[in-house]
């Protein structure tokens, strides 16, 4: 692969996003459908893959005090005019929220999960309005509109069977991780400045989280524990509470952008914040910091080609944590082999961290993964690496990641179904008050009298 091609890939996999990417993608699909069939909504049906439902069910939607697939879809047809990209929630107004709630209260939004879908990221929206019917499908990546139809007119059809296999995975897996690191280091650091800008964006979200009154407050409280002497005032804890604070704010729905990596804002937080903080503490020159950020993003993307874009394990912990650890080794003047050792240390430590969906509780996982990234990097620099034959760790990084991928696909195949069945129970309980209010409203409109 030419270095220029790798740069293009890194740019594609790093993008600013406002809000969790799964609700964003749901709103985008609904907005695309409404864009071609505007008018009074009579039906809005949403079909999603299990992992999309899992990550969208409980996470805060920016500009609102609400969560859920239903609300994300309703907002997609209510925001006017919608930004048809990852920043669709950047300008949500009270009037948009009221319109979306009205659709929900009238019982016009229906959500189903298709457990047989092979693609972990799939969103299908069917919409009926006063101007006709529309169908929109987003698949594979959060902004990939692969199908759009208005009445009988086909506007877009780029479904997977009609296009080549996933490009990034195919390109990255042709090379070893060490070859890819060499390619990254051959790039002009100026061309990677977007990563530095993204890291600053993510640190801004962390500072927002430090003063947050809602959310879980992991970052703020951990910082206070450090100040009280109950835990150390060191770089490891600073990395942990800054990263957690950014997640606190983001999962609570703060209306600020973060740099997403591999389709996830939380991946972006873990892959950037520890490196920027360590670079300042270590006095690293700007060139080395931006190269470390690039290594972190590269490794994160590389691991996702093995585990899948959405998976039963926490990618923020395992993929982004390992990416961050490799970048931290580079800041510490370590070798490629020591970067590989950090990757093994971190995936060995965190592979059991399951993903039970996007939510405020993710801040605890990011706190753990950011601290483990620093610890794994320090140990690798000290010559401590999990040896081959210990669990799923093998001789090479690639073999270890292949085994990790098997654990995701085969060993944890039933985990998502169990988690999602629990989340569906929660969702049904959440909807009961709304369904009761909607039924009362419909009866009042018909002139029915209760009792």
Please provide a written account of the structure.
The protein is an alpha+beta fold and 451 residues long. The protein has two domains: 19-162, 60s Ribosomal Protein L30, Chain: A, CATH 3.30.1330; 167-411, 2-methylcitrate dehydratase PrpD, CATH 1.10.4100. 56% of the residues lie in helices and 11% in strands. It contains 17 helices and eight strands. The strands form two sheets. Strands 3-2-4-5-6-7 form a six-stranded mixed sheet. β6 and β7 (153-157) form a beta hairpin. α8 packs across α11 (265-282), α10 runs antiparallel to α11 and α14 packs antiparallel against α15 (362-381). The chain is globular. The termini are far apart.
Query: Unreliable stretches, pLDDT < 50, 5 or more residues?
Result: 441-451
Order of helices and strands: HEHEHHHEEEEEHHHHHEHHHHHHH
Portion of residues in beta strands equals 5-15%
Query: Which strand order does the major sheet show?
Result: 3-2-4-5-6-7
Number of helical regions: 17
Q: How many strand segments?
A: 8
Going by helix content, strand content and strand pairing, the class is: alpha+beta
Note the main sheet: 6 strands, mixed
Number of domains: 2
Radius of gyration based on Cα positions: 22 Å
What is the annotated CATH architecture of the largest domain? Orthogonal Bundle
Q: Taking all residues together, what is the mean pLDDT?
A: 91
Q: Tell me the helix content.
A: 55-70%
CATH topology of the largest domain: 2-methylcitrate dehydratase PrpD
What is the distance, rounded to the nearest whole angstrom, between the alpha carbons of the first and last residues?
Answer: 73 Å
């Amino acid at each position: 692969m030419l270095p220029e091609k790798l740069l293009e890939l890194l740019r594609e996999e790093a993008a600013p996003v406002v809000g969790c990417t799964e609700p964003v993608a749901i709103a985008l699909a609904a907005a695309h459908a409404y864009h071609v069939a505007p008018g009074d909504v009579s039906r809005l049906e949403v079909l999603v893959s299990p992992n999309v439902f899992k990550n969208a069910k409980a996470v805060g939607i920016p500009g609102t005090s609400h969560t859920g697939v239903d609300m994300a879809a309703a907002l997609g047809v209510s925001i006017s005019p919608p930004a048809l990209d990852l920043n669709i929630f950047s300008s949500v107004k009270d009037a948009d929220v009221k319109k979306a709630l009205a659709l929900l209260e009238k019982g016009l939004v229906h959500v189903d999960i298709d457990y047989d879908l092979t693609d972990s990221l799939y969103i299908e929206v069917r919409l009926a309005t006063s101007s006709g019917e529309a169908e929109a499908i987003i698949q594979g990546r959060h902004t990939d509109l692969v199908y759009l139809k208005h009445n009988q007119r086909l506007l877009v059809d780029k479904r997977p069977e009609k296009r080549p296999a996933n490009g990034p995975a195919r390109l990255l897996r042709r090379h070893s991780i060490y070859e890819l690191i060499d390619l990254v280091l051959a790039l002009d650091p100026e061309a990677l400045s977007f990563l530095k800008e993204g890291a600053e964006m993510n640190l801004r979200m962390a500072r927002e989280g430090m003063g947050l009154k809602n959310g879980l407050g992991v970052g703020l409280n951990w910082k206070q524990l450090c100040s009280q002497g109950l835990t150390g005032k060191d770089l490891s804890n600073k990395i942990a509470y800054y990263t957690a604070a950014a997640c606190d704010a983001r999962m609570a729905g703060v209306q600020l952008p973060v740099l997403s990596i591999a389709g996830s804002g939380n991946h972006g937080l873990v892959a950037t914040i520890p490196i920027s903080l360590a670079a300042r503490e270590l006095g690293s020159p700007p060139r080395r910091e931006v190269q470390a950020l690039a290594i972190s993003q590269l490794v994160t993307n590389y691991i996702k080609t093995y585990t899948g874009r959405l998976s039963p394990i926490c990618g923020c912990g395992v993929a982004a944590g390992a990416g961050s650890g490799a970048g931290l080794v580079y800041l510490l003047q370590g070798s490629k082999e020591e970067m590989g050792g950090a990757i093994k240390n971190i995936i060995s430590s965190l592979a059991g961290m399951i993903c039970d969906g996007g939510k405020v509780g993710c801040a605890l996982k990011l706190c753990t993964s950011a601290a483990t990234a620093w610890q794994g990097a320090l140990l690798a620099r000290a010559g401590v690496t999990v040896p081959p034959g210990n669990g799923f760790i093998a001789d090479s990084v690639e073999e270890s990641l292949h085994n990790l991928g098997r654990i995701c696909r085969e060993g944890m195949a039933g985990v998502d179904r169990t988690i999602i069945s629990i989340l569906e129970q929660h969702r049904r309980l959440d909807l009961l008050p709304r369904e009761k209010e909607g039924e009362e409203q419909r009866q009042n409109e018909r002139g029915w009298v209760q009792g």
